[in-house]
Amino acid sequence: MKNILIIAPHFKIEYTAKKVAARYNDVDVKLALLNQSIKIARLAEKEGVEAIISRGGTASIIENTVQSVPVIKMEVSPYDLINAVYTAKKYGSNIFIIGFQNIIEGVGLLRKILNVNIHIYYINDEHDGERYIKNLINSGEKIDVILGGTVAENLALKYNIPTVLLETSAVTVDSSIKEARRIIKSTRKEKQKTEQFKAILNYISEGVVSIDYTKRVITFNSAASKMLGIPIEKALGHPVDELIPNTMLPEVLNQTESELGQLFQIGKTQIVTNRVPVIINNKTIGAVETFQHITKIQEYEEKIRGKLLYKGNIAKYSFSEIIGESEALIKTKERAKMYAGTDSTVLIVGESGVGKEMFAQAIHLESRRKKGPFVAVNCTAISQNLLESELFGYDEGAFTGAKKAGKAGLFTEAHGGTIFLDEVEDIDIELQGKLLRVIQEREVRPVGSNRVIPIDIRIIAATNKNLLIEVENGKFRRDLYYRLDVLRLKVPSLRDRGKDDIKLLSSYFEDKISSRYNKKSVKISNDALDKLQHYHWPGNIRELENIIESLVVLNDSVITGEDVEKIIDEKLEGKNSECEENNSDHTDDLEEVKKRHINKVLDECRGNRTLAASRLGISRTQLWRILNDK
Q1: Are 476 and 355 in the same domain?
Q2: What sign for the dihedral angle of Cα 552, 620, 605, 586?
Q3: Where does the Sigma-54 factor interaction domain start and stop, copy by copy (predicted)?
Q4: What gap in Å lies between CA 113 and CA 107, rounded to an integer?
Q5: What are phi and psi of 360, to 5 degrees?
Q6: CATH value at residue 273
Q7: SS3 for 576?
Q8: Long-range CB contacts (< 8 A, 24+ apart) of 378-383?
Q9: Tens digits of per-residue pLDDT, 528-542?
Q10: What is the pTM of this model?
Q11: DSSP 168-194
């Protein structure tokens, strides 16, 4: 059986359909009128036909006969109608059109256009048509011609009345075949989605139950059947509260909020359930519930904890998550990707807040070690007294307060992966020698131990200082410097990346932070963005994120340029206050500190006050007032 079957109610339509069908390899044509089509349609359905095409009353009968096959009704085109009426006019101007509504609908419009007297009569079956003709004959009505489909033609011939067949053109047949093929394609896709959905439902370990607005079950997967002890066929179509005692799922139909992580008791079994309303066009049309044995969740938790031996051993950021389109950033990312293809040590340099750790994580995730751990160590955050034991680990009794079983060091934790040493310049000079040995020998000796543990790691270090100057000042070992500075990656500052990157990052942080605080109505105005783009960002991306967070928290709608100026001024005052507190012998007041900072920016801008004001995020008038003590 071919995919498409045309059931033609007249031999002329059959002839036209066969001519058109010859162009396709998936169309068959059969001749049958009205009830004669039932047997053919049922057999076709059984044999797997995917669409049936017919017209008039025959199409309506087929539609009521087959339930699983779409029926496409061939329409009569305006051209077919006009052509038939012109032919009928040859017999006289008193024309009677008899037929099923889906065939002759619209003929009435031709009365005025063609200046003919058209009488229209809709029928539901052959008997309707015969009664109508008998009544016309008995009334003495003059009947010049009867126009219609096969039924009208047969009746006209029976009563010796001239007749014209309302034919179906090849164009209409072709159009119907194309429509059938489109429907078949769509149906196949839908069936594929349904089967995939069923496979997913029956594969997942969570129980899934969904209901419609009448509270009847429309989805019930294998896991739900197993957990609840209810066969799938007995659950579908039944009210959910009759199947699951004390279920709260129907309550979700009356709300818009989800209920997540709820504990629920079924018999002696405790489960964790999530209940979510299904909302379309602001109307709740159903609800879905997923549930899992609490013991199963505990098993998963134990497995996860077993794999994550040390918090922070996972890299989260890939290169695609480093936001920006500036040439400086793109070149840096391209170089970093090349570095990722090696196992050599990388030294990442850049100002504070430029995102050095993000690059370290991205390099790790792009490397052959991506399935291994990523251990990040902030060498400033850990006390220098503890840093050695944290890095190398220690044996039992190595020092007072040591854990009884000892502790693996971060180098050991990073085995098979990458260790990231941030702010490496702050490592104590004595500890630098031990770090040098690890880099050279790829082995560690825990504190208080005579054991040597071989390690397979990749080292990435980062600094915001010039290490060569630190070497010249005797604060950093020269040999360690050259061991670290194998592949150098300089991350550009935010001001070097340009306005477009500031715009992208501002938009990203605005979305992220407004979602976190549920303040989605907060938007950055063009004026505010201009201020952000002209500020010099000494704290780089970290400072930008902090300022955006302040702006989002303090605003409920549009963030203005004035808002930006105010926040930046507050940040500058805070920074200058810290400088004063940290330098008790400093005699300059806050305004002098602010002036020095402004003069520094002016020097960078070669005395251009307009540019300096833009970088500082203040107006030119404000700059003049500060410099002139106004």
Answers
A1: yes
A2: negative
A3: 322-553
A4: 11
A5: -60, -45
A6: 3.30.450.20
A7: helix
A8: 378/422, 378/423, 379/421, 379/422, 379/423, 379/424, 379/425, 379/426, 379/427, 380/422, 380/423, 380/426
A9: 999 999 998 999 999
A10: 0.47
A11: --HHHHHHHHHHHHHHHHHHHHHHHHH
